[in-house]
Amino acid sequence: MSEEVVSKNFIELEIDKDLKEGVYDHVCTRFPPEPNGYLHIGHAKSIILNYGLAKKYNGEFHMRFDDTNPTKEKVEFVDSIKADIKWLGADWGDHLYFASNYFDRMYEVAVDLIKKGLAYVSDLTAEEMREYRGDFEHPGKDDPNRNRSIEENLQMFEDMKAGKYEDGSHTLRAKIDMASPNINMRDPILYRVAHMTHHNTGDKWCIYPMYDFAHPLEDAFENITHSICTLEFEDHRPLYDWVVKAAGFANPPRQIEFAKMYLTNVVTGKRYIKKLVEDGIVDGWDDPRLVSIAALRRRGFTPESIRKFVELSGVSKANSSSDYAMLEYCIREDLKTSRGRVMAVLDPVKLVIDNYESDDVEWLEAPNNLENPELGSRQVPFGKELYIDREDFMIEPPKKYFRLYPGNEVRLMNAYFVTCTSYETDETGKVTCIHCTYDPATKGGDAPDGRKVKGTIHWVAAKTALKAEVRLYENIVDEEKGVYNEDGSLNLNPNSLTVLKDCLVEPSLKGAKAYDSFQFVRQGFFCVDSKDSTEDALVFNRIVSLKSSFKLPTNN
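Given the sequence above, the corresponding structure tokens read:
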């Protein structure tokens, strides 16, 4: 038998090489978000990738908050990020960490770098530092403070820590190379003065490490083997390597970069989402029109669908965009055989069966999902008065309209054949009631005499129907015009949300809880809204419509 060939991405090949050559004897990865906002679909790729690698190599996965900037960080974001990651299925076990818990150790490393002559205190202003730094065409100039004595630097750094300097007045800089072609290596700032209360350490510190200094140290402290990050950190890798080497770690972590996941025609920028929230265009960071993980969860996407989407998007070194339609494809594939199908009427008009004699409720059996018999069946109430969707009746239908119109016979789903005999309208000509007769012999939806009908429509019984609000979502940006206008503002779609207030659903949905999802037959997949729905006032979000022209690309 030929050995099965397992396709591996380039990161896995690098890990295999490191393990084979003895660089590491284990694998330890991490997801290190800054708690300054909500995670979005792009972060999901990093979470799933890092956790998946740890699991594949029987290693450890660490969850760590890179909370080195108290100006933007909030406990709200910490809590939301933890909830998102748990929901996606990434289990960090006992390995939950905060960068701020390492502040004492980071300070000791900084002192050690000063003693080694590899760091110095600068009193240049931000503007002067930019001037001295140079640009891509001109090398930088040495900081006038670059050659302070070690003793003086140690004292000044201690004074920074003691709160003797104002915000922004002093920094600790690495002493590397002001002529480096990589601007990140031109004596980068390691610490800055900031008299601010930190969400985790309170007022203990008035100096805070910079991300490029803190991050490699955190990885090294935790014995991370492979620091998997996105491509924008590629230019920062030399500084990452410099920090862990200068700090004296014998077997430091290795940084490997991969391409971010971009989605077509979506908004992921925190600045833009914040403005949408503040302007009241969306009702929070979890508004179902957004692609934050919280928003996708509220809309009704499943962890399985997002993991499938990440898998289909792949891992590469080249930036590319994935079609939002592929994300919709993944949720359809996940839900179509795993969720029950129920009847919901979104734009109701009354239908009366004139020859249905009983005023009692008749219970009819209906399968929950024809594609998955294991989901069983349910009893659906039927009666003399029903509601159907307004679009399922026309007075003067066009050709090939197979639904209900005067004189036409259709099938009521899982019930009977009915024939339209008449209709009523209001003073504007709007249809208010449709009258039909039914054939009792067609119970279950088939005629004993073998006659066929071309139309099947769904319905709910008037006596038992539950009222519900249904929210129909479209992309929040105008897809034809693109995400951004020329001035950088968002090109918003005015029809991104349609709220239907007078919908009716079958009584089996009574007691539906937040995040429960269903297929409304002929309408789409819907989810119980986690924020606004109550037991007495159901609210459903449309996750996705039933059909799409999207098809997975085939490998020839």
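The radius of gyration is 31 Å. Try to locate this feature in the token string yourself.
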